[in-house]
Amino acid sequence: MRSIRARLLAILLGSTGLVWVLAVIWIYLGTQAEVERVLDARLMEAARMVNSLLADQRIELAAADVDGNRPAVSFEFGSPPYERQLSCQIWSLDGTLVGRSEHAPEGRLTEAVDGFSETVVGDETWRVYTIENPILGVRVMVGDSISIRDRLVGDVITGLVVPAALILPFLATAIWLSVRRGMAPLNAMAEALSSRAANDLRPLPDSDLPQEIAPAVRALNGLFTRVSDAREREKSFTAVAAHELQTPLAGLKTQAQVALASGDGDVHANALRQISTGVDRTSRLVKQLLDLVAVEAEGQVRATIAGRPIETVERIVAELPPAASGRVEVAGSGADLEASLDPVLLTLALRNLIENAINHSPDGAKVVVHLCETAGGVDIVVEDTGPGMPENELPRAADRFFRGRASAGAGSGLGLAIAKEAADRMGGALHLENRQPHGLRAVLSLPAKGAA
pTM of this prediction? Predict the structure, then answer.
């Protein structure tokens, strides 16, 4: 059942019907017990009354003779409303019927000598109370039919069920109207959302909402805000990326025009070198843009595995061009250290950190990479001997396309952003600090092996 309204109606109607059925059963059982108690008390009182009348000789009975010449005396018992409910028989102790009420059966009501009993006379079950009077030598038996008792209980239940059954349609209608009214805010929210344009990310009104719907509306508004922020970041990213690509492409075009316009071989050679440099810069920028897109496509947090970061470091250094790989020194004794990592994200982060350190270091200067174990996991430290960054620029160093005043001209401002994003997706962190007397230290912290 996918409809909340239908589910609520089914639950409410089912619960109401169940309560109603249980109430009928409870009333039936309670009424039956109460009727049994009241009617048993009436049998007892009626038997005692007849016995008292006999003792006071207010009823005179002549015992039937042995030959049956003298029939048993019949007498009227009970008032007209009860004349067919109560029956009385008076038997002598030797088993002779000496008297009975007008509507009492001819067969013996019970074989019990005293107290309550149930017996079948003919095809009818009777509830009988017997009193033995040894002084008069008789037994007084007063009984009523079980079917009459059942009829009384049935009449009571019918009096309850029929009005309830007549009320049930009105109750179902009231429940349906209540559910419909209760679902009205959801319908209004659905209509408001369905009528919106795709680019309309305004928050929904969240005042005067039911407590059950307010969290959903607040969650939707939060989603709208995040989507709007993401769209703004994408617009900004696209604009800056286009600008960054436009600059080297314009330089390439200029150098190509210079080479075409000049007949000097030295000018041609210099233009070709500039074109090669521009192609390298553009290629690096495109590669970093693709890396950033790949990192952001991985979701919030990647499922990590236990691994040795030194293997990723050595592979990245081996893949660098010979002139660059010779400038990277892997120091320390972290060969056996293990951490919780994602190989793809760690490769993206370290490659950009190492390339960034090489680009910002003087020609021929060494870039040192070493690993150290910490209380929270493993730190991968990349140190260069470049100019470093002003302290007020360090908090923004990992922003996209941010390049400080001392940045190398070939940088795109994406390397540190990619490394920070990848570290965050692995549950780690990136920390930047200046070295003394100069240079920058980038610390990529990975969680310990087995950490979530």
Answer: 0.47
